[in-house]
Fold:
Amino acid sequence: MKKIEAIVKPFKLDDIKDRLDEIGIRGMTVSEVKGFGRGGGKAPVYPGAEYVIDFVPKLKLEIVVEDDLVHPAIDAITEGARTGHVGDGKIFVIPIDEAIRIRTGETGPDALT
Structure:
């Protein structure tokens, strides 16, 4: 099992969700986060003043999948999130040793569905 974390632009969530649904992934955790990467945030100019916003609003998606769904999930997220502009985001893949469904006690891949 792997945990996929993706940092994406908020307005791309529906596109990503639709693409994940097409491959059978219907569960995820979504958090509102702020951050910046290589671009260092943005510097808007208002009449008479320029100031720097260091952190850009993003969404963090967390999905745990069986190993055979990792690459299809990455492809779905990439296709749904891509705009071709700076700040499209990042995807991280993290090994998961165990998963437990609290309600039933199911473990491993059985706890994911």
